[in-house]
Every structure is written in structure tokens, then in C-alpha cells.
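TA notes. Do not distribute before section.
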Amino acid sequence: MAWGEFKDTAAERRLFQRRAVVMLVFVLLMMIGLLARMYQLQIVEHEIYTTLSDKNRVQVQSVPPPRGLVYDRNNLLLAENRPVFSLTLVPERVAGMEATLARLSEILDIAEEDIERFKRRLREPRRPFQEMPLSYDLGEEEIARMAVHRHEFPGVEVRAELVRYYPHSELTAHALGFVGRINREELQRIDPVNYAGTNYIGKSGIERFYEQVLHGTVGYQHVETNARGRILRVLERVNPVPGEDLQLHLDLRLQRKAYQLLEGRRGAIVAIEPETGGILALASVPGFDANKFVTGISVEDYRNLSTDIDKPLFNRALRGQYPPGSTIKPMMAIAALDSGVTNRERRIWDPGYFQLREGGRRFRNWNRSGDGWVDLKYSMARSNDVYFYEVGVEMGVSVMSEYLAHFGFGEDATLDVSGALSGLLPTADWKRAARNEPWYPGDSVNMSIGQGFMLSTPLQLATATTLIANRGIWVEPRLLKDIRGDRSVDEFLPSETHEPLILKNPDDWEFVVETMEEVMHGARGTARAAGSSASYRMAGKTGTAQVFSLGEDEEYDEEQIKERLRDHALFVGFAPSDNPKIAVAVIVENGGGGSSTAAPVARALFDAWLEEFPAADQSSVISQVDQEGGL
């Protein structure tokens, strides 16, 4: 500014005022924007941000329901739940999974296969923030070590959970089945809400069939957590609904007896209560420890079981398909009588063999010298093959198959026995489709004595025997006896579908029962030694099933045949014969003759059920089980 010029204060004042107004407007606009944003956050989006805030602090956790218990008919516990401590990880909260696993392996004794199993599950589809178990059943020392190092492992916890336990594992493994970890396929079909937090599901047997009843309903809880995800307190809890407890027809005493009678041998026993169809015993020997499968069986243990030559994992009672041999003769007798092919008085000459035509192949009787003139009762007692060869050919495959189907052969006739196979009931159409061959008369000869193409399971033989014990009244085999709770048995037990087998002459039932009594008590009965000195009368039929075929003129020499190529020993029967309380089917693999091996086993079961076991006194039952111990 030049000398003598004066400042224009008015202009400066106006400039300042304009600038002040602009700044004031700018500040006001910023304040309005800030207030608008605060309004949006605090008022409009209040619930959204409250929820987001709570998620950092409050979580909803699923509470799995306790699995229902399983009891036998005398209220003895067969399947329970026990608490175990497992090491679990939430992958979303673990920073550096490989480093964490390596560090955990230094602190705890974690098997390499557990780590590999955990990594496989990590790659499978799963629910977000789901705890994944790494190691199971930690000991006190391992729990203490983890407590010391807990702060070093965010997302890693020691959790207590209820895990299935079978106190009589080897005895009940094939009857109850077992639970195991939920796999990828099961995860796709189960209800993700109700199974949230549940790690186990029924894999086989009763555990699988009644999974819906045993599982229960999931609960939940709101918990407050810290920044590491550890629970500080429970804010709200809705308790889960436990699964229903089941009571089975199975009798643990008889089940143990069956295992003891087959100890050291391979075989199966099925015992049914004729009045109800309840399965009293379902034994497949050898068995296995089902508890090993619950939390995951080791590779070595599974390899030992799966490669064992005696096949302990194979359920012979339900899935073993054997030629029924002469145990089929009582059913064939019903078919022959009712179809009019034979009668009670008819006699057939037995020279020791049967021929379809003169000069043709000779189908041998087990008694090579022959029994002479034989009628139906004598043929049953003596287990004469020639008589049944004759009537079998006269009936033909159509009539035999039709009647045998009424006895439950060729189908799974059970209500709730998971995994039972259907066997094979051959027909002419089946052979044409399967073998591209016609049905020959010789096939009927073999079928008439339970050989040839026909296959049946021990459970099917017990079911057919029960039908005879009931004189034609059907009761489909079932394991479930009662549900302890608000649910009804009828709600889950499938409906019966079989109609009674009504004969043209109902007295034929009694006659066939009499022929089976002759087997046990007659002077020439094949099982008279097993039936001697009994205080009750029993009805039965022995059987022998060939493992390999003999030539026409070859004779069976047990001493010269390898043990695993020897005949299977079979027996079916019931007692008392006039008012049956128990029906059984017994098979001893490679046991030789049914009369010498299988029949004594059945007699011991009859004696145990009818005479040895106390009836309904709960204290005496428990005392007896404690004294006998368990396998």
C-alpha cells in the first residue's frame, strides 16, 4: 500500500461477514449431516446395529438332547450315555490351523489318525462355527495340561459331552447296532436344526431304526462371550427334550446264554416268543465291541476286525444266508398235506436212494441202506430224505414256493429288525431269469430237503418255526416292546401285513407238531438224545446243510474234510409243544450233524427259558446277571 492511502475497513468487514456466513452455512450443513447420520444409526438402524453388537458379545448355542436309553424286557440297561471330555476346535476362530494342530500334538498325545480324520472333516460341508472334535475321551492329566495352556489356543476348548456306551457291548452289538459320528451323506438328509450340536447318529440295528425316537429335540442357550469366544455366563436357556427310552423284548440272560453255548464256534441263534413275536435272543458269534465305533474306531482295530477269518462284524443271524437243509421238512410237510399230494397214512418205499426214472441219477438218503416203508411221521422223526424227494417232485416248484412264501421265506418279514436279508426262495421264473435255464425235476428234488438254490437266514427259520408253534397264526418278529414316555409303540412300529395260514384241515397243524415231537422224544428221533429226560415236551427238527457238493457215489467223511468245509449243523424247534413259550433256530457253522451239535444247544436254551430263569422278580434278575457276569 502506497504512503497516504487508507485501509477500507468497511470492505474488509463485508468480506469477513461473507466468509463467516459461508463457514456458518458449511458448519450448519455438516451439523445437519451429522445429526441425520446419527438419527439413521440410532433410530432407523438401531435394531441392526444392536444385533451386530450383541453378536460380538452374545451367541446362540445349540444344546444337544441326551439320547434315549435302551433296556431289555427285565429293565436291565443295554445302552446308556456316559460323559466324556473331548478336545474341540472352532475352525473360524483358530488362526493358523496347521500350527495349532502341531502345537496341540506337543502338549497332548493325539494320534496321527485322529489328526487325519479331523482334516478330512474340515474339508467336508459343515455348519458354520460348529465345534469339531479332535481328540476323544481325554484323561485327567490331559485336561489339566490343556487348562494350563488354555490362553494360548483361541477357538480350542475341552468340552464335556454325553457319548453312547454299551455295558454289554459284545453281547448286544449285532442286536442293538451302534451309533457313530455323523458323516457327509447323513448330514445331507438329517434336519440341520434338530441335529445342531449333535455329533452322533444311529448307524445300524435298533439305534438306526428308532433314531427319530431316541434322538430327542434340540435346545438352545444365549451365552455371553469374551473376545476369544469363551463363555462368560448363560443369559437364557431352553432345555432340550431328551430322547425316549426304549424297552426291548430282548432278554439279556437268554442272550448271554446263547453266546455261552456258541463260545469258541461260529454260528447264530434266534429265539422268538410265539405269543408276541418278540425277539428274546439274537446272537451272532463271534461278536465285537461296539463301543469302539462310537467315537471312531482306529485303523488298526478296524483292520483286525475286517480281516478276521471268523468275520465278527458279519451278522449271521440276520444276513447269513444258508441252505436250510432238513429244517425245512416241517414246512414241506404242511405243503404236501394241504395240497393233497400226501396224507398221514401214505407210505413210500426207501431203498436208500431216489430216482426220477429207472437208470437215472440216484439221489441218496443219508441212511445209505434205506429205511424201507416209511410214512410222514416216521420220515420226519428219522429225517428220511426219500419220502420228501417223492412228495417234492409231485408238488413241483410252484406249490413248494407258494407254501414256503406263506412261512416268510424269500422276504424280510420283520417289523423293526434293521438289515435283515430276504434269503432266496427259488421259482422257475427266477431260474430262467438268473441262470437262463429251465427248472428241472432234479431241482425240485434238492429243494424238497432244503438244498439246491434255496437260502434262508436263521431269523427266517425262527419266524417259520414260530408260525408252526402258533398253528398258522402270524406274528411278525419285532424287537421293540415299549416306549417309556408319551409316545405310543404303534406310532413307530410298522403295521403287521401277514395273514394267518389257514389250512383245509386245521388238524394238520397238530399232526405236524406231533411229527416234530417224534424227532425229540420218539424211539427213532434224530434228536432224541437232546430231548431225553425233559420235564416238558418239545417239538423240533434237525438239519444238516452241505458246504460243498459230493459226487453221486461219494460218502461224507467228516474226519477227512477241512474244518471250514464241513457241514453246517442246524436245528429249529419250540417248547412246550402244546403251549409254546419259545421258538428257536440254531446254526453252528461247520458243526457237522444237527442232532449232535445244534439240538443240544436248543435244549439248553429251552431249559434256561422254561426252568432256570426267574420270571418277573426284578431284584432276582439283576442278582442273576451280576453273578453270571458278562462277556
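Switch to the second chain here.
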Amino acid sequence: MAHGVAHQLIASHLVDGEMTPGEEIALRIDQTLTQDATGTLVMQELEALGLDRVQTEVSVQYVDHNLLQADEKNAEDHAYLRSAARRFGLWYSQPGNGVSHPTHMQRFGKPGKTMIGSDSHTPACGSLGMLAIGVGGLEVAMAITGKPLSIRMPEIWGVELTGELPPWCSAKDVILEMLRRHGTKGGTNRIIEYHGAGLANLTAMDRHVITNMGAELGATTSVFPADEEVRRFLAGEGREEDFTELVAEDGASYDVTEHIDLSELEPLIAQPSSPGNVVPVREVAGTPVGQVVIGSSANPGLRDFAIAARIVAGRQTHPGVSFDVNPTSRPILADLTRWGGTTSLIAAGARLHQSGCLGCIGMGQAPAPGTNSLRTFPRNFPGRSGGGPDDQVWLCSPETAAASALRGEITDPRTLAEELDLTWGDLELPEPTVIPGMLEEPPPADEARHEELVKGPNISGLPDFEPFPDAFEVPVLLAVGDDISTDDISPAGAEALPFRSNVPALARFAFTRIDPDYPANAEEIKDTTGHAIVGGSNYGQGSSREHAAICPRWLGLRVVVAESFARIHWQNLANFGILALEFTGEDDREKVAQGATLSFSDLHDQLQQGSEIVGQVDGTEFTFRHQLSERQVRMVLDGGLIRQLAEDKA
């Protein structure tokens, strides 16, 4: 049987298991990525695991999320991360260098390699023919110590691309089309592999836009082949020697198939408040806009900023619009300036921000209440922008964003181009700038062993959780609906995220967007009964941040019962000793309200004997199910992975 790129990548790194969809497999990991919002916990986990030196080929710690230094907390974390990177042997990227994903792609991405990252948009490096997967921080910590990654073998979803994008459409419209068709759950337990003649018309950075937002489909990862375009990209970065061709074999077959004719696409936009709520721009044209933001990991290359600069050049953006631009990296800002685009943007009214994630994670650029904010970002979950739970955030391409900034209302860029006689074509961009020494190389091992970890007062240790009880009775402290995101569980933003290294302090923000009293109510009973949470489908979608598991666990969360779980959060729950159960009956979810009492007995035997778990809801027997492997069952019963490893060493 002929195989595609994803199958070849998995086969070449398979350590254990059978490559049958749904079966657990273990993969050797070559590279890791951590960023500051999640990396502080990873570094604390490396301390707890007793690591001396990284065991991967390349591991990099980026600082790109929490760049605002309104007080000392973020600066403390940055100092800790740099010292930990030096101590354990990771590369370090300082604040202002750029967003982790495109920076990693430019400096370290290699076709044929595997990578995991404690950020859900890690799959962006699939643009280079890598198997790049977003996971929880504890999985990354384990990989850094040389352990394989255990995941369920996904289905391979082959998406054939043909044709060429029409004028005023770009890569963002390709991934928005996938989201329009399939929503935020369509990629669950699947790897999306793009192939076909249409690849010839997509640059490596275009492909990054698409693989980056494959996370919004719920996919395990997305991959493109390593072809001549990837060779050209690496040559431009001064790394042609890192190129290895990796393409699908002739006649490669896929578990699921799809076709997109690029020539039939039109400008698309995701309405508030889900990346899957996609419609053509023309259908919502004329909607007033108060803010337009360009930048984020979904705008990895110079082209996205240059096309915006071309559209607004010589014109003024609408006076009622805040036009915000944060270039993705320091080299892109240098190239944009060399090309002349920085001047065009500033002259048109743009507010230029530093390179980093910023508004995408709610760290600045929050919109005013009742204001429609158009963003070229990957996500628009409620409240993620930092502008409140009722923010109105839309996701679109740079073309649509720039056109709308000029008009002060959502504008189809094709309409604007016709009105202003704008030309579409080659932007004649310069060769990319490579800044030597931009990232700090780790010191030699002998020197690193003498490195002191720098810990300010806001950096706490990891909590020590007890083993999972065999029987318990807990109240349902919170009952929530479908598509609860990790932003709902553990909010990002300028108020909460600076406490990312301080679990007890960060736990005070848990679920407060849904129930402001949840932290206090949970803490009151955490040392007596603990509690349960009930959810709908796709519980825990979005960010990979394991704070969304560890903070509720610190507050006494024992079990989450939902209709279904997002992949990364489901694994994070197990990592910290929280039992994830699913309803078995179609209307069971409706029968379990907030305030109900859940009780279980003989849980240890039940978990080890099969997938069905019998419990009671207010005295009535219910049957639930779990999807944990034997390895994960043991992890939960031991109270989480770190406690399990500590006991194994004892």
C-alpha cells in the first residue's frame, strides 16, 4: 500500500503500538517547543523529574505571550525561564524575538522530524513536512527527558488541493473554508494531510497559516509534503542543508478524503464567537467595525503584512477604527521596514506593537464593549480578547482586515479593489533577513550544571496531589454547555496570566467567566468532599494550557463528566489525576444538573476491568464510559503522572 507523508512520519518514529486508528501508539520525539504561558510549569516539571540535560535533538523555550510588564510578575517569569533554559540545555528566545511557531519554523524546522509543543498551534511546523503536535506541558517535559509521546493513532484525512487562489483570497481563506465545512470538531482524532497540484501555488508561509489553524478543527496535527517549495524556503533562511524531500508515495491512500478547488474560494470570515462560525465576507459586508488587528501565529510571514500595507498605502484608515499591527517576528519587522511597508502602515494610522502573541492571548489590544473587532488571529472564543465575555471578535484574512480598516465596516476586498482600482499580483518582497545570534544557545553541560534557577516570589512549586480514591461522593459544582474552551476554564489575559507560575493564585480565576463564585465554592470543600463538573460536547477545546486541569484539580476537582472531550485537555486531565467520563445515553446530560450529587464505589476495579463505569446521580444508577488506556488508568489512580513517576523511583 502506498503511504502519504503523515503515515511515513509516524512509521519512522514509532516506538510502540500498532498504526491502527484508535489504538495507542508511542512516538520518538526529536524537538520540543515551549512558550512562556505554559513553559513555566514545564520547567517546574523538569525540576520535579530531576532532569540534568535535555535528551532531544532540539528544545527551545520562547517568550512570546506575556510581554506586557505592567508589574514585576512577567519579568520574574522571563528571568526564571532563561535560567531554566540554561540549566537544562534549551535554546532561549527572549521577549521581542517573535511568536514561537514561525520563529521555530524559520530557525529549527526540519522535514522528517517530530516535534511536540505545549501550545496548541504547534502543528504550524507541519508546513515543512514535520509531524508537529500540540500537547500538554507534562508531555513536553517527558519528551525533553527522552521519553516517547503516547497518543491514539489518528485517522489520516487527505485533503486534495487543486487550482489557484483567485485575486484577493489567501491561505487564511483556505483554512476558513475547512472550518466552514467541518466546524471545530471535524478534525478530532485525525491528521490532515494536504496534497495535490494546488500545492504549487502555496508558499511555505501560506502552508503555515493553514497548519496553524488546523488546531481549530480539533485535528491532532496537519502536514504538507517537504517539496521544492520547502527547499526554497529553507534556502532563504540559510538552511538548505536541513532539507530532506518527503512527499506522498504515488497512489497514496487516506482513511478520509476531501477536495478543495482553490480557484472557487472567496473571502471568508468567522463570526463571533467561534472559528467554526464561517460565512462569506459579502454576506456580512457593511457591519460597523471599531478595531482591526493584524498579527499572530496565523500571520507567520512578511506577505501578510505587506499585502495589508499595499492596500492602505497612501490612504487613511477610518477615523472610528483602531488599526493595530504586531509583526510576527523581529526579522519580519526588519523586512517590512526594508520593503517600505512599515511606513505605509504607520502613515495610514496603524498602531505598531511589539512582535509577539499579544492580543491573540488577551495581553493588550482589548476591544471596547459593543465594538466589532476584526482580527487575523486563529481564535475568537468568548472573552479570549480580554474585552469581556460579550466581545465581538471576527476572524479574517489580512486582505479583508485592511479593506475593512479603510472603510470602517466589514468590506469584501474585491469590492474595495474595484472601487480604488487596486492591482493584485507579485509584491516583489525582499529576501528574508536572518539575524545571527537572535536566539541564545544553551551553555555546555558542565557550565549548565552550575546555573542557578532564578525564582521570584510569584513562582510557586508544583502541588502534590494525593492518589485517586476508590469511592467518593461529590456535588456537581458546575454544569456547563457545549464547546467550553480552556479560556473559559483558566482565562488568559493581562489580569490572570501573569500568575501562570503560581497555581494557587491562578486558581482564583478558574471558571470565573461562567461562575464568579466557583473558586470560593470549590476551595471551601476541596479538603472534604471535592467536587465534579458536568459538560457538553467538545469540553476543553482550544489552548493546550495545562493550567485548565491543574487549577481546578488544586481546587478539589475529582471528575469531569461530559458528552465528549477535546484531545489535549482530555489528556491533561489524566496527567493530573482527574477522571474524565463520558455520558452513554443521548439525554443523560440533561438529567444531571448543577447541585446534583455524584457517587462512585469500587472505582479502582471498575477502571481496570473495562470502559464502563457505574455510578449514581442523586441515588439513581447511571452508566458512564471512559476512553483511558491501561497506562492512563494507572496514571489517574496514582494521582497523576508526576506522583506516579516519583513512586516508581522510590
